[in-house]
Amino acid sequence: MDTAVTAKKKWWSGGHSPFNISYGKLMMWYFLMSDAFTFGALLISYGTIRFMSTSWPDPNEVFHAFPGMGHTNLPLVFVSLMTFILIMSSVTMVLAVHAGHMRDRKAVIKWMAWTILGGIAFLSCQAWEWTHLYHSGAWWGRNPFLNADGTVASTNFTNFFFTITGFHGLHVTSGVVLNIIILANVLKGTYEERGHYEMVEKVGLYWHFVDLVWVFVFTCFYLL
Amino acid sequence: MEHTHTGAAHEEHAHDSSTKSIWKTFWILLAITVFEVGLAFLYLEYDFMARWALNGIFVTLTLVKAFFIVAEFMHLRHEIRNLIMTVLMPLLLFVWFIIAFLADGDSWKNMRKNLSPGTAVAPPTHVTNEPAHH
C-alpha cells in the first residue's frame, strides 16, 4: 500500500521477486524449460534420423488399431482419443487451479480427482497401444513394419517411438503420482491451513507441460 | 495486466471468478486437433496437396496449440515480462538446434544416396549423370 505503483515498478531493486512469482513456481518453470530441452533433443534426434533415411514407415500403416475393433483399419482414431483425454485432463487441472484461487476446497478435490482419472485413462490407452504393437512384433530392436516404399525398415522407427512415447509416459506417470500426493494434502486440509493452494498451481504447471509435450509427440509420430 | 499491486509476496492477481477463458481455450485446442485429424484423413483418401505443404500446416498448427497451452493453461501470458523472457528466451536456441540437425540429416541422406555403392535401391548401371566421386 505504501508505494504508489503507477507506471514503472522497479522489479530489480530488491524486496520482492523480480519475476513476481514465488521461488517454487519460478523453479518449476526452470525445470520445465530444462525438460523441454530434453524432449526437444529426443525429438530432434528422431527428426535427424528420419531426415537421413531414404524411406520411413508410414504411421497410418502402423497405428491403425482400436481396442475391440479387430482388424478394422482405423488410422489416427485411437491416438486422437488419447489426445482428447490429455487435453481434457489439462482443462480439469486448470479448473482445479482456478478453484484453488477461489479457496474452494470441494471444487479443488473434484477437479484434481478428474485430472488423476484422465491421467490414468491416458496411461491405460498407452499401455494398450504398446501391448498391441508388441504383439505385432514391434519393440526396441525389432521392427516388423516396412518402409513406405516397400523396403525393409531399420529399427530406428520402433526405437524412437518406444523411447520417446515411453519417456513421455514416464512423465505422465510421475504427474499422476504428484497429483495424487497433492490431492491427499488437499483432503488433509494442508493448504487450507497454509492459506493458499499454490502447490496445486505447481503440479498444474507440470501437468500442462506433459500435455504440451504430447502435442509435439502427436505431430511428430502420428501426423508427419 | 496487473501493474497496480500492493506488494504482497504472491496472490496479487485479481482472480476472475468465471471459467469462460478456460473453456474457450479448450474449444480452440479441440477444434485444431479435429481439424488436423480431418486433414490427415482427407489426405489419406484424396491425396489432394503436396506432402511438404501438409506437413507445414501440421507443424504450424502444433505451434498454435503449444502457444495456447503455455499462454492460457500455464498462465504465462498473464505473468510479467521478466518471467516471460526468462522462460522463453533460452528456448530460442531451438531455432538453430532444429535447422542444424535436420540439415545434417538431410546431408547424410544425400551422401548415402550418392556415394554408397551397396545401396539396395541403387540401379545396376553406375553413375552416368554426375561427376565421379571416388
Main attributes?
heterodimer; A: 224 residues; mainly alpha; 7 helices; globular; B: 134 residues; 4 helices; 60% helix; disordered N terminus
Quick synopsis:
Chain A has 224 residues and is an all-alpha fold. Chain A has seven helices and no strands.
Architecture blueprint of SSEs:
The complex is a heterodimer of chains A (224) and B (134).
Chain A: H1 23-52, H2 59-62, H3 77-101, H4 105-135, H5 156-188, H6 190-194, H7 198-223
Chain B: H1 20-46, H2 51-73, H3 81-88, H4 93-115
Helix pairs in contact in B: 1-2
Describe the structure.
- The complex is a heterodimer of chains A (about 220) and B (about 130).
- Helix content of chain A is about 70%, strand content about 0%.
- Chain A has helices spanning about 25-50, 60, 75-100, 105-135, 155-190, 190-195, 200-224.
- The model of chain A has no long low-confidence stretch (mean pLDDT about 95).
- With about 130 residues, chain B is mostly helical.
- Chain B is about 60% helix and about 0% strand.
- Chain B contains four helices and no strands.
- In chain B, helix 1 packs antiparallel against helix 2.
- The longest helix of chain B is centred in the N-terminal third of the chain and has 27 residues, at about 20-45.
- Mean pLDDT of chain B is about 80; it is low at about 1-15.
Question: Into which percent range does the helicity of residues of chain A fall?
Answer: 55-70%
- Number of distinct beta strands of chain B: 0
Average pLDDT figure of chain B: 82
CA radius of gyration of chain A: 21 Å
Q: Could you tell me which chain pair has the largest interface and how many residues each side has?
A: A-B, 66 and 60 residues
